[in-house]
Design goal:
binds ligand RRO; 34% helix; 303 residues; four-stranded antiparallel beta sheet; 11 helices
C-alpha cells in the first residue's frame, strides 16, 4: 500500500473493501458522538477529523431509550458500559442523523443491529440504498441487549443471517464479532463464507460490577461490556486467531490508546484499527494514534 499525498489531500492507495481511506484508523461504533462533537467544536472538527472513516452508533428499526442508569462503571484500565442501544430508530436516523453525518470529511459506515433477520433486512435495505453511506456494519455482538448475542455467537446462525442479508445491498458489509463466543474465528469464517467483506473485532467482553454500599449490581442493565486497555491482550489474541483463518480484511480494536497499541493489532494481522474507549478520555485520540502509528512506520500522514 502507498501512502503518498494525493491531490485534494487524500493519501492514495489505501483502501478498505474497495473504499479509499486516507489511513487505517477508524472509531469503534458508539464511542464517538460526531454530532455532539460538531456542536462542541464546530468546523474545527471537520478540519481535524480524528478518524479515517466514521462508524455510526448502532441503530435499530424502532427508536430505543436504552438501559436505565447507571450505565457506566470505571474498572482498572477500562470501563464497563450498559448503554443498551439508545437511538432514534431507522426513520429518525435517516431524517435527523444521516444529514449531519454526511458532512463529515471521511467515508461513513453505518452500524445496524436487529432483533431478527427481518429487522436487519429492513435496516440494510433502508440505509444501504443511500449513496452517502460507504459501508454497513452488522453488529452481531452487543452485550447489553437480551437477544443481541444470538446471531454472532454461533457460526451457523451467523452464516445463515449473512447469507440472507448479503444480497440486500451492494455496499460492503462488515460483520462485528463478539469476543464472548466460544470460537470467534469460526464465526468469522462463517461470515466470510456467506459473503461478508470484512470483520471487525472485538466488541466488549461481558462484565459486571457491584455497588460496594448495597451489594447489588451497579449497572441499571445489571451486566455490561468491558472495554479499554484491560481487554487489549484478549483482543489481540482474537484478532490474530481470526486473521489466520480469513482472507477478508480484519478491523482490529480493543483498548487501543497509542500508535504502539495500533501497530500491535496490525502485527496481529489487522488491516485497519479502531479507537474506542480512549475517545472518551481524549476526543482527538484517533488523530494522535494515526500520527504515532505513521511515525512508527516512518510513513507520512496528512495534516
Ligand atoms: O449500546 C450498547 O450498550 C453497546 C453496544 Br450497541 C455494543 O455493541 N457494545 C457495547 O459495549 N455496548
Amino acid at each position: 500500500m502507498s501512502w503518498q499525498l494525493a491531490a485534494g489531500g487524500w493519501q492514495s492507495g489505501f483502501e478498505l473493501c474497495g473504499v479509499p481511506l486516507r489511513g487505517p484508523v477508524l472509531n469503534g461504533s458508539g464511542t464517538f458522538d460526531a454530532i455532539a462533537a460538531r456542536r462542541a467544536f464546530g468546523d474545527a472538527l471537520l478540519e481535524q477529523f480524528p478518524f479515517d472513516a466514521f462508524v455510526s452508533k448502532t441503530i435499530t428499526v424502532e427508536p430505543r431509550d436504552g438501559n436505565p442508569p447507571p450505565r457506566l462503571w470505571e474498572t482498572p484500565a477500562g470501563m464497563i458500559n450498559s448503554i443498551g442501544l439508545p437511538n432514534r430508530g431507522l426513520e429518525g436516523f435517516l431524517a435527523h442523523d444521516l444529514p449531519q453525518l454526511v458532512e463529515l470529511p471521511v467515508p461513513l459506515v453505518v452500524s445496524v443491529m436487529g432483533f431478527s433477520v427481518d429487522e436487519l433486512a429492513r435496516l440494510l435495505s433502508g440505509v444501504g440504498e443511500r449513496a452517502e453511506v460507504a459501508m454497513m456494519e452488522l453488529n452481531f455482538s452487543c452485550p447489553n441487549v437480551e437477544t443481541g448475542l444470538v446471531m454472532g455467537a454461533e457460526p451457523e446462525e451467523t452464516e445463515a443471517a449473512v447469507d440472507r442479508l448479503r444480497p440486500l445491498t451492494e455496499k460492503p458489509l462488515i460483520v462485528k464479532l463478539t469476543p464472548n463466543a466460544v470460537d470467534p474465528a469460526g464465526v468469522a469464517e462463517a461470515a466470510e463464507r456467506a459473503g461478508a467483506d470484512a470483520v471487525s473485532l472485538v466488541n466488549t467482553l461481558k462484565g459486571m460490577a457491584f455497588d460496594p454500599r448495597t451489594g447489588r449490581a451497579w449497572l441499571g442493565g445489571v451486566t455490561g461490556g468491558l472495554s479499554g486497555p484491560a481487554i487489549r491482550a484478549v483482543a489481540l489474541e482474537q484478532v490474530h486467531a481470526v486473521a489466520e483463518r480469513v482472507r477478508i480484511p480484519v478491523i482490529g480494536m480493543g483498548g487501543i490508546a497509542s500508535g504502539h497499541d495500533a501497530r500491535e493489532f496490525l502485527d496481529a494481522g489487522a488491516a485497519c484499527v479502531a479507537v474506542g474507549t480512549e475517545n472518551f478520555r481524549d476526543p482527538a485520540a484517533g488523530r494522535r494514534v494515526a500520527f504515532e502509528l505513521a511515525e512508527l512506520q516512518a510513513l507520512p500522514v496528512r495534516d
